[in-house]
Every structure is written in structure tokens, then in C-alpha cells.
Write a structure and sequence with these properties.
The protein is α/β, with parallel strands linked by helices. The protein is built from 14 helices and 23 strands.
């Protein structure tokens, strides 16, 4: 019986990162010698190394290699075949990253393609508690190829990102899926990175308070009871939907009772702070990767003012653990979203703003704007191809240097000039100017949602608003700059004679009409950064944010 193990992320068909030191790791009996060898398709040794197990773990590295196929990795008496050396990205976040290829609009067409897109996928063991079942299930995880039946469950956003990247770089791209619907960024962090800040520590103290006085057995039973109730509710909802197609979430809860999601704060609830770091992310650390694509933030909308601190600390956490202070993060800014029956709490505006701040202040962290890709009254937009391609363009420019950054990033507010009765805005990534697109559909949807709340949308609505010193905002007229000022927009309103502040698309859901000439939507913004979300009020109806298998 072998007295060593190799981490489950190593299997046949794996993709190893090119042009970086390749880390191989596992566990075992102290003193055991580990010898590893990487060979090419002609059985010529590319690199070899050995180490001795200490403190129950082992780790060694191979020197950087160029992209190639059909390699072999040997670790003592274990052999892995059909190993590719190419590009490896981790696809992290919550349900919109988890959203499966088979369920997106473009999925059936993609899955019907016969040609191998040179994409391979490893889904990290998706169990949130380390019991015996956890380790047995992890043994069955493996890298999947386009021939695998499991491809239908790959991340849709991740797949389209990787497919385009593989074509543009001319090498195999491997994705490590490490995501879970409904999760806060705090679930993906080490305890030390939450403890060091008073505000972030609240994620831990809330969990600790809920567990106080409970044994592990009591906690596990509480969550098991919740799962039974949750599954019954979903089954009853399916039956109700068949009888009343299109029934609203609020009406369904009136009939069936409140959906119990996300369940009690137990020791094994997947949404607990640090839980998925321990059970998922740490299980693939420190597998050599090129970077991270990330789509998350929806489940931190109850603490929107803390999201910049939370997300930036999570990035620091991951870079620390990968021992790479410049590890690229490509992330999606939250899209248009609001449930039909909810007020516009504007909490997603604050999360988007925090994401923009990360983009502006954290090195090698680049934002992809998705404001125009939302879906009415649905937290899960089903069109994923374009978003994957936007992320890939972001990578080509900012990670690989193969495109101009201004061609793949959305126009962003750069500076403002306040005149006597106008405000002039200047934008980055808009050197060629702007274009307007019709968005009558989303305008009508906004009017419908506001009517439910007893409000009306102003007839002169443009998406731009300005305010005086009193910060009472009114719709603004806007004009585009000309000649050498194509990247500027001037705002005016007859209702604001001395404007001081401006904002654009400052709503959870509404029309998206303004795009740069590069085809990308202008990033939402406000110029008054001192206003904050004073409460944790957010949507009353919390749709289940997991993705069905």
C-alpha cells in the first residue's frame, strides 16, 4: 500500500501551466521519498525533482516548460498520461460563474460542436464538510476533456473564456472550477484575513454567535433538517409552477411558506465564513495557475459598504497563499438586477462601486463591465458567451499584452469639471467617443417595477442625473464632446442651476444605452463618494441563488 498521496487535482488529462515553475504536491508518511518526472510525447525527460515528506505533506517543483501536448507525469509508482502544458485559470465565485454550459442560451450550440476547443476542466470537490464522504468523493474528481460527458456541467462563462483564449493563444487552456452559488467572498477566505479587520470580523462573530452552545452533532442535525425542508419546498414549488406558470416568488411564498434558504448558520453550512476556503480552495493550493476569473458579489449586498475591503482582502489572501503578489484577477462587475416586486435599494450600486475601486486601486485586478447583460427579475442572466469573451479580451490585453487595454475595457469616469451651470465628464477608454443604443425594453421594465412601488419614472429620464449642494438628483440632458474632446460628456438640467454632483446608471436595474465606440457599456458611477449605504436593507425576496444540476 502506497505511503503517499498526490493531491486530487492531479489526474490524467490535466493541464499544467506553461512558462512558470510547476508545483506538484500531496500528503503521506513522514520520511517517504517522492521522486517526480515530467516527460514529453517522445518520452524525453523535461524536468525531474525529488523531496522527502515532512509534517505529513510534500511539495516539489519542475522548471518552466513551453506549451505542448501528450506529456507524462510520474510520481513514484503513479503515472498520469495525456498531460497538456498550456494556460491554467481558476474560475471562482458564486452562481453566475457556476452557471452550467448546458443551461445557458448558447449551451446547446456549443455542446453540439464536434471539434475539440482545446479546453479541459477540473471541478474542485463540491462538498462543504470534511467527513468520510468528502475524501472518498474527492478521489473521484479528475480533469475532463471535450470527450467527457461532464462537459455539460462546466462553467458557461469559464468555458467561453477558455475556448476563445485557447484559439487566440494556440494552446490548451485548463479551468479549475472553484465556485458555489449564493456564497459571500468571506466563504473563500482564511480566518486570519477576516480577523485582522474590525468590520470584516463581523462575518466571523455572527457565525460564532449562532454556534454558541451547540455541539457539532447538533449543528449537523440542524442543517440536515433544513436540507429536508428546503428540498420539500423546492418540490412543492415545482408542482405549484406547473399549475400556475409564472407565479411570482412572493406569491409562491404566501402559498408555500417562506423558502428556508440559505439555512441555519451551522458548522457545515456552505455559506459560512472560511468554509469553502477550507473545503475547496485549499484543496487545489498551490496548483500553478496563470490567474483567476471571478464573478461574485451578489451575496454580499447586505454589507455593500464593506465589499471593497472584503474583496481586496480576499485577493490579498489568495495571492499570499499562491506566493504570487501579482497573480492576475479578472472579475465581473455586477450586472443589471432587481426583482420585479422589490424596491430599488441601490445596494448593488455600492457593490459595483466597490468593484470599480478594486479595479482602480489593486494592481493586476481588472474589471469587466456586464451592466447590459442582465435579465429582468432574474439574478441569473442566461446569456454567458459574450461575458466570457469580454473576460478573454481583458486577459489578452492586460495579462498577455496582445491587445490595447482601451479596446477591451469599458469607458470609466476619469475626471470632472464643474462649470457655472454644467458638469463636464472625461472618460478613460473612450478616446474614439460614444454611441447610444436603444433600450426601450429595460426602460419599460423599470417603469413597471417603479409602478409597483407607487413611483413614476420621469419623462426626461436619461440615465444621467445631476444635483446641487443638496444632493437631490434630477435627470440630466447630455451632449457628447467633439473633435479633440470625443471622450467627454457634458450634463445640464434646468432644475439644477448650480450643479455639484453627477451620476450615471445609479440603479440596481434600468436601461443601458451608453456605450463606448469599442462596443462596451460605460461603467456606472457617481461623483459624490461621501454618501454611503446607511443600512443593510436589501431585497426582501431572496431567490435561491444556487444552480440546479
Amino acid at each position: 500500500m502506497a505511503n503517499y498521496t498526490i493531491a486530487a487535482v492531479f489526474s490524467d488529462h490535466m493541464v499544467l501551466q506553461r512558462n512558470k515553475n510547476i508545483t506538484i504536491f500531496g500528503t503521506g508518511e513522514n520520511g517517504t521519498v517522492i521522486y517526480a518526472e515530467l516527460s514529453n510525447s517522445k518520452n524525453k525527460t523535461l524536468s525531474s525533482n525529488k523531496t522527502k515528506i515532512q509534517n505529513g505533506v510534500w511539495e516539489l517543483q519542475f522548471e518552466p516548460q513551453v506549451a505542448q501536448e501528450n506529456c507524462t507525469l510520474k510520481v513514484n509508482d503513479t503515472t498520469f498520461t495525456d498531460v497538456s502544458i498550456g494556460e491554467v485559470w481558476l474560475a471562482g465565485g458564486q452562481s453566475n460563474m457556476e452557471f452550467e454550459l448546458q443551461n445557458c442560451v448558447e449551451g446547446p450550440g456549443a455542446l453540439a460542436e464536434k471539434k475539440d476547443p482545446n479546453v479541459r476542466f477540473y471541478y474542485t470537490n463540491k462538498i462543504a464538510w470534511k467527513d468520510e464522504h468528502f475524501y472518498e468523493a474527492e478521489k473521484n474528481t479528475c480533469w475532463q476533456t471535450w470527450e467527457s460527458e461532464g462537459k455539460k456541467s462546466w462553467s458557461a462563462v469559464g468555458y467561453f473564456f477558455a475556448k476563445k483564449l485557447a484559439k487566440d493563444l494556440g494552446c490548451t487552456v485548463g479551468l479549475i472550477g472553484c465556485n458555489w452559488g449564493g456564497t459571500s467572498a468571506s466563504a473563500w477566505m482564511r480566518k486570519e484575513f477576516l480577523e485582522k479587520d474590525e468590520e470584516l470580523r463581523t462575518y466571523l462573530t455572527e457565525q460564532e454567535e449562532a454556534l454558541k452552545g451547540k455541539t457539532i452533532e447538533q449543528s449537523l442535525k440542524e442543517y440536515a433538517d433544513y436540507q429536508t425542508a428546503f428540498n420539500k419546498w423546492l418540490k412543492d414549488f415545482d408542482e405549484l409552477w406547473k399549475k400556475q406558470p409564472g407565479i411570482s416568488w412572493a406569491e409562491a411564498e404566501r402559498v408555500l411558506g417562506k423558502n428556508p434558504y440559505p439555512g441555519p448558520k451551522t458548522c457545515n453550512n456552505p455559506y459560512r465564513p472560511c468554509g469553502l476556503y477550507d473545503c475547496m480552495l485549499e484543496r487545489v493550493l498551490p496548483y500553478t495557475i496563470k490567474g483567476v476569473i471571478w464573478y461574485q458579489g451578489e451575496s454580499d449586498d447586505h454589507k455593500p459598504n464593506m465589499y471593497y475591503k472584503l474583496f481586496s482582502n480576499m485577493i490579498d489572501n489568495w495571492r499570499t497563499d499562491w506566493k504570487d503578489n501579482e497573480l492576475p484577477f479578472l472579475f465581473v462587475q455586477l450586472t443589471n438586477h432587481r426583482y420585479e416586486q422589490d424596491k430599488d435599494f441601490k445596494h448593488w450600486c455600492f457593490v459595483r462601486e466597490a468593484q470599480n475601486k478594486v479595479h482602480s486601486t489593486i494592481k493586476n485586478a481588472w474589471m469587466t463591465v456586464s451592466m447590459d447583460l442582465g435579465k429582468y427579475s432574474d439574478i441569473h442572466p442566461t446569456q454567458k458567451e459574450q461575458l466570457g469573451y469580454r473576460l478573454e479580451g481583458n486577459a489578452l490585453a492586460n495579462v498577455y499584452g496582445l491587445k490595447k487595454s482601451e479596446d477591451v475595457l469599458s469607458p470609466e469616469l476619469d475626471s470632472i469639471f464643474i462649470g457655472s451651470d454644467f458638469i463636464k465628464l472625461s472618460f478613460k477608454n473612450a478616446e474614439k467617443g460614444f454611441e447610444l443604443r436603444d433600450d426601450t425594453r429595460e426602460l419599460e421594465e423599470l417603469k413597471k417595477m417603479e409602478a409597483i412601488q407607487g413611483n413614476t419614472v420621469p419623462e426626461d429620464f436619461t440615465g444621467f442625473e445631476i444635483a446641487g449642494e443638496d444632493k437631490v438628483f434630477y435627470p440630466a440632458e447630455f451632449t457628447f464632446g467633439k473633435k479633440d474632446e470625443l471622450n467627454t460628456i457634458t450634463l445640464k438640467s434646468k432644475k439644477v442651476t448650480e450643479p455639484k454632483f453627477a451620476r450615471y446608471a445609479w440603479y440596481n436595474y434600468g436601461p443601458v444605452t451608453l456605450f463606448g465606440k469599442n462596443g462596451l457599456p460605460v461603467a456606472p458611477f457617481r461623483t459624490s463618494l461621501t454618501d454611503s449605504q446607511s443600512t443593510t436593507e436589501h431585497a426582501e425576496i431572496q431567490q435561491v441563488m444556487t444552480v440546479s444540476n
